[in-house]
Amino acid sequence: MGAGHGTHLHVEGHSVVHRLPAHTKLVGLVVFVLLVVALPRDAHGLRVATLLVAVGVVAATRVPLRHVASRLVVEVPFVVFALVLPFVATGPQRTIGPVTVSRDGLDAGLALLATATTSVLMAISFATTTSSRDLVRALQHLRVPDRLVQILSFMVRYLGVVGSQAQRMKVARESRGFRARSLGSWPVIASSAGALFIRSYERGERVHLAMMSRGYTGQMPVTDPLSAGRRDWSRALLPSAFAVVALVIGYAA
Amino acid sequence: MSTPVLDVRGLAFAYPDGHQALFGVDLHVHRGERVALLGPNGAGKTTLVLHLNGILEAGAGSVTISGLPVTRPNHLEIRRRVGIVFQDPDDQLFMPTVRDDVAFGPGNLGLRGAELEARVETALAAVGMSHLADRAPHHLSFGQRRRVAIATVLAMEPEILVLDEPSSNLDPASRRELGELLESLDVTVLMVTHDLPFALQLCERSVVLSDGVVAADGPTRDLLGDGELLHTHRLELPWGFSG
């Protein structure tokens, strides 16, 4: 069988954030992140304020901290870059304790670190409170091109199927004494991957047949439309409202 | 006699590569009948099934469903009338949840809201899967997935249910439960199968398709009792069953 419940991003719950319609959350997330990255570079105070807003949203999801922390790992490349930046950037220098770093680099590094953390936290609060089904419905509702929505939806559905097929092929290889140890074993792995592509392609054709057999004519029917009231929208856009205020203060200063 | 639900006359078909799969098939199925379509691998069973709802277009001959010919302008109505359940439920169940999947067919027919919901509920109840409506198809057992696959088609209220190898890959208990389920449904059934005891259990009448023609058509018990006929068309009862 496919991946268990535990490996998915989504965490069941009934918090305020969970209950918001998915499309309002998605709009809220994108607007908020765009506003945060638009903050002036040296507005560190305001950046910390938006970071606190993101932390507040994560707290409101009531998702276990452990779960959020492990998802934060995606940020690591940005953290590394932010840490390196003060040492490699040029311009006026500044001495902090035993080390001398570039002042511009330090500013840019701190800004990058705060912006990345804020954005990732918001993205995690979206991902942990929205099921993949609702994400697909949200994209459909927001009029993202149908083709893209379908690709995403099929990926969600068939990732497990293709994954378990790959796993079965691996077991079958190893049952005949194969072990991937050297470069010499690459052709075997490559041909397995090729076979997997062909099988997936054929499955795609069969799925298409099954879809046509049930009256599919190129457009996914919206059988369960999303709806949102003014209250939902105002809640979903609340973090963005904070970010707008921060942005205005930042550019006025 | 009334208009047959399924009326296939002189159906012939060759694939684009020149391989001819059907050489003039005649088949009539009347309302309320359960008919087994038997035949060895490569006999043309799947090719025939794909003609019933217009996925493949007849090279010669005709297919008519309750009086409506299978032609391109009629495709949507034909696909409502003919419900095909494919062999691999993973091919049939492609939506994120069971409920969405069952709603896909009636959704394509334009149903929305309470009417659609009622269709979904009824279809899931008919296969005993109402409690799994909000689960993802890939989290279900194989037997459950096959039942849901049947529900996805029942939700379109078809006039004929066409099942491709319904008992394949099922453990004996799931196979028995599927048999009970199919017996409980008030719908005309055409069942493609290699599972001869399953055909005998569910279908009074059987049709043997061999080399692209109908080789025999009669009561299942008589056909399965004819050892020579079975042998000629590479059909075999499981070991221990006498012919």
Named CATH architecture of the domain at 6-87 and 158-232 in chain B: 3-Layer(aba) Sandwich
Helix content of chain A: 55-70%
SS elements, strand count of chain B: 10
**Total number of beta strands of chain A:** 2
Number of helices of chain B: 10
The SSE order of chain A reads HHHHHEEHHHHHH
Name of the CATH class of the domain at 6-87 and 158-232 in chain B: Alpha Beta
Order of helices and strands of chain B: EEEHEEHEHHHHEHEHEEHH
Q: Tell me which protein chains meet in the greatest interface and how many residues each side has.
A: A-B, 30 and 37 residues
What percentage of amino acids of chain B are in beta strands? 15-25%
Helix content of chain B: 25-40%
Major sheet summary line of chain A: 2 strands, antiparallel
Question: Over all CA atoms, what is the radius of gyration of chain A?
Answer: 23 Å
Largest sheet of chain B: 6 strands, mixed
Structural class of chain B: alpha/beta
Overall outline of chain B: globular
Oligomer: heterodimer
Radius of gyration of chain B: 18 Å
First-last Cα distance of chain A: 57 Å
Instruction: Give the overall silhouette of chain A.
Output: flat
Keywords (chain A): Cell membrane, Membrane, Transmembrane, Transmembrane helix
Main location (chain A): membrane
Membrane topology (chain A): Multi-pass membrane protein
Subcellular location (chain A): Cell membrane
